[in-house]
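DATA SHEET
Item: assembly model
Revision: 1
Owner: S.N.
Input lines:
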Amino acid sequence: MKTYAEINEKIKNGKAVVLTAEEVSELSKTLSPKEIAEKVDVVTTATFGAMCSSGAFLNFGHATPPIRMEKIELNGVRVSGGLAAVDTYVGATDCNPASPAYGGAHIIEDLVNGKKITLEAWGKGTDCYPRKHIKAVIGKDDINEAILYNPRNCYQNYNVATNTTDQIKYTYMGTLLPKMRNAAYSSAGELSPLLNDPECRTIGLGTHIFLCGTDGYVSWNGTQFHTTKPVNEFGIPTSNARTIAVIGDLKKMSSDFLRGAYIEKYGITLYVGIGIPIPILDEDLARRVSIRNEQIETTVIDYGNGNRVLGKTNYAALQSGSIEIDGHKIRTAPLSSLAKAREIAGILKAWIEKGDFLLSEPVRPMPTGTSLKGLTALDD
Amino acid sequence: MIQKVVLSFPVDATDRSLTYDLVKQYDIRINILKAEIQAGKSGNLLVELEAEPQKLDEGIAYLIANGVTVSPVSSKVSYDEKWCIHCGNCVSACFSHALTIGAPDWKLHFNPDKCIACKLCLKSCPLKLFRIEFAES
């Protein structure tokens, strides 16, 4: 048994033993969980994928005379006017329908890259905020705060998408060719954060993380947090389950790990890079981080035909380049970048080894016993 | 011998049966992979030409003599590697297997010999990093 304080002391002294989740999975072929718990202090996990439920809070500062911004556009894209006088939330998927390939995610990336953005805002004019219209050019150094706040990131596992129809389907899981000629998956497998701590024993409110090139924090359980999905014999939910909300300083982020993207005939999304360190407090956590791709199962869904379940597969098969469903061999390709996830896990490992990054014990654990509600329309 | 090439037809060549001549005079088997051609206008054909090497050379020389530009597909397809995040979206759509990603490095690899210029990578790349001159010329 180790404590957070003991591990942080080792990190400060440059004596912590840190491995990436892929390295520890390899090590688990020769060492038992007990031996790994004795030898290893921290395991770094990471993912770099499209995470639509992302966005940034901005505070523009006040002009003279001031304006209460009620309708706001950034580079012609309408963003939230529902936050006080000069605050907004730029949602990653915000867009101008007239030019749908550029939107909130690209504005966020442009800000990170130091590019200037045209701000235009309107207000009705009040006694305390008399101005009714303003046009200005802003950059990240001109505004007060720019805070990335993503309500749902880092999904714990995700379905595999294929298409049994005879038409191409353009989905958020990418271009799905007819007659199951491809299948798309979106997880870093054994490197993915929430698959290495599947019950969130160490990931909770206040967990210190790598977020898009700088450090950030887990701020809450993510939306659609689902803890009661079926799990396999290794304790892994076999479809999308838990999520996390994350927060960090956008001004310090890098577009190496944050990219605006446009998915054909679907819309805009933000590629987000997240790295989470798992402290190896005991043998149980050592066993969890030793999880291997062949032990992580997920569900294959027909996105062309009402999200019908076609079967199960695992990440070793997915990463081999093909899976077999009902006797059909289907070519596979990822949507999230394993190359980038590895880079992030490596950077986080280096930060911890150098003593630049300490672990934080959650101030509140994640909820348990949660499931999802649907939505009933009035005319259903 | 098989060669995959883009044939760019000038305006005055699109109303002549040059591809028919390739079959009749030079015994070249033609597999048309993509066509963007209209009579009276310039156009492009992406084709696989299969024949004895000498016949193939003679056939291509015949096309060139008739004002057709013959260029390999590899010179026509490109993507901006510097900005690629190796996500794999293009690989998923690439049914000719020209674009691949996998162990050990999980970075995007492009084999121009397998490309049939179907343009699905242009649509499927979420960062819009692909360019195909064939489609634009």
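QC remark: Chain B touches chain A through 21 residues (CB under 8 Å).
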